[in-house]
Protein 1
Amino acid sequence: AQTVTQSQPEMSVQEAETVTLSCTYDTSESDYYLFWYKQPPSRQMILVIRQEAYKQQNATENRFSVNFQKAAKSFSLKISDSQLGDAAMYFCAYRSNFGNEKLTFGTGTRLTIIP
Amino acid sequence: EPEVTQTPSHQVTQMGQEVILRCVPISNHLYFYWYRQILGQKVEFLVSFYNNEISEKSEIFDDQFSVERPDGSNFTLKIRSTKLEDSAMYFCASSVSSGRLHEQFFGPGTRLTVL
């Protein structure tokens, strides 16, 4: 079974600075997807960014980028130019690409933005 | 932009009572999911549903739980006899397919409180 680990329960960053959230996972599969979801205080989860395991290039979405290290099974999220609206719970998630659509989530990192 | 909706936003029930949580997935989506999040813990997969049948379920999804798509728009989760430990946030999600560009869109959740 796959597991996802987020070792930072809480992080804080000064507004306009850069912060990196860590995620590691364990799987024996070679083809899968990784996601970062944001859960603001309103509690609806929103997809931030995704990475396909067979792609070596790190995904980027505006201020959000990932550092995907497949051999190390590491998938960190970098948020540049942090904004107050980035304050949320961030979940790392894994999905297999072998007929199994469920998402396996980590325990989350609560990100606080300091004005 | 289309969204997944869930009703009610908050449900309070007595232990042993039946509850039905309702979800309206995005209209052209074909795959439906339920997840739950006990307060302070990670989001856990419960069940996935496709073509009017369960495609996968977790160990949590025991005989007390059932899902149904009673019409062309609603997707429901029924808990037959609620227990205190069923208190959680329940999230519905839907996706258009299970293909490589699969993305699950989440609803805002229903907070279930069992007294």
Protein 2
Amino acid sequence: GAGVSQSPSNKVTEKGKDVELRCDPISGHTALYWYRQSLGQGLEFLIYFQGNSAPDKSGLPSDRFSAERTGGSVSTLTIQRTQQEDSAVYLCASSSIRTGGNGYTFGSGTRLTVV
Amino acid sequence: DAKTTQPTSMDCAEGRAANLPCNHSTISGNEYVYWYRQIHSQGPQYIIHGLKNNETNEMASLIITEDRKSSTLILPHATLRDTAVYYCIVRVGYGGSQGNLIFGKGTKLSVKP
């Protein structure tokens, strides 16, 4: 597609439930990133996929968070047993070494609210 | 941690130039300076980047000091739609596949009529 697509755009879930957030990167982009942004805060790196390499999971805040990227394209971020502090906007970005200096293209995010 | 320091907020009059400073005193020789902005409720948007030379594109100009320890993003004629949080980021490499971007808190620019 023309841009990075994330779904759903909004998600309200009950504390303790699992949620899955989806990211469709720009076609052909080899790198994919997940960030989260709590209300009024900056962006916090979560995880980074680059081609077939092992992902960089150094930003995941706990073992309740996991992500996968199937076929080098679509990625799913899963949060198990959600807590209220997980409420944030989850942003996905993709990039390709061929994009040169334009760097990273971000999606509009998924706003997660845990009640 | 972010390797940059930016003022928390700035105001600018509509139609005037907005000059946003950034300090990156520990920048390495192979690190580029990138600027992104985030308009309310949207994902960050790439603006411009540079290594050591000044750069200009349709959105902005980037002035990097000779010692590369600081830079200034210039929006030549700010409009109300330029109200956003502006992030200055340094990172190794060129292009889109050199690791994640580390965002600081950025500068909240408010363009006023």
